[in-house]
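Deliverable D2.4 — example input (structure tokens):
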């Protein structure tokens, strides 16, 4: 109960919780639809998913400005790779959120002349670029972790065993959860842009996993990669 109260007291916590339920609805209605089960329930889940999406857009309204200014702070990071990837990721996220705000205006009926499909596609492009930058940073952090570990030699090929590499990553929760989140999120804009073709159930499951990773980072401070 304490965890739920803590999440609900934060805007990010409410957003991540709503996102989790949103993608759960997507996975559920596609599963039901593929099995020809209860069309009324499917419609209800679709409607609830859309309502949660709109709710999250409302929560994020104006956040593009905050994210843009946060990119200025990362310009002073001492590590060049982290500085470049985090700054570019935040700038792309800011533009993604700006496009998201335009879509929100269209959905709420404030602006009716908006080409929603065009702005959705543009937001997916910025989201994709942000995820690519995040993953470059994650792989860089993994490389640094492996370099800090004393190599364990295999008697035959004298290389680090894959299991040792995986164990090293799992021992560093912040890098592990951030990588899981970004890998899962990468496929959502890829699907939105038509670069890959995934069914709604798969997108729902990917969204569930990435949302869970985001919630863990909020609940457990040691599981949050900084700067993010």
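Example output (designed residues):
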């Amino acid at each position: 109960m304490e965890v739920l109260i803590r999440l609900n007291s934060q805007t990010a916590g409410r957003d991540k919780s709503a996102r989790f339920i949103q993608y759960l609805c997507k996975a559920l209605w596609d599963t039901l639809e593929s099995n020809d089960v209860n069309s009324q329930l499917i419609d209800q889940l679709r409607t609830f998913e859309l309502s949660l999406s709109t709710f999250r857009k409302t929560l994020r309204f104006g956040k593009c400005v905050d994210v843009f200014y946060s990119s200025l702070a990362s310009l002073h990071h001492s590590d060049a790779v982290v500085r470049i990837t985090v700054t570019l990721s935040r700038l792309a996220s800011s533009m993604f959120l700006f496009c998201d705000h335009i879509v929100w205006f269209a959905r709420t009926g404030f602006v009716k002349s908006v080409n929603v499909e065009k702005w959705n596609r543009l937001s997916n492009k910025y989201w994709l670029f942000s995820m690519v930058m995040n993953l470059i940073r994650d792989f860089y952090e993994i490389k640094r972790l492996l370099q800090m570990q004393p190599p364990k030699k295999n008697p035959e090929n004298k290389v680090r065993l894959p299991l040792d590499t995986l164990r090293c990553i799992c021992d560093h929760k912040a890098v592990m959860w951030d990588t899981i989140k970004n890998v899962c999120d990468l496929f959502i804009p890829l699907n939105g842009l038509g670069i890959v073709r995934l069914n709604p159930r798969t997108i729902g499951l990917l969204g569930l996993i990435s949302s869970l990773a985001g919630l863990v980072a909020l609940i457990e401070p040691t599981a949050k990669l900084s700067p993010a």
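Residues 116-148 form the longest helix (33 residues).
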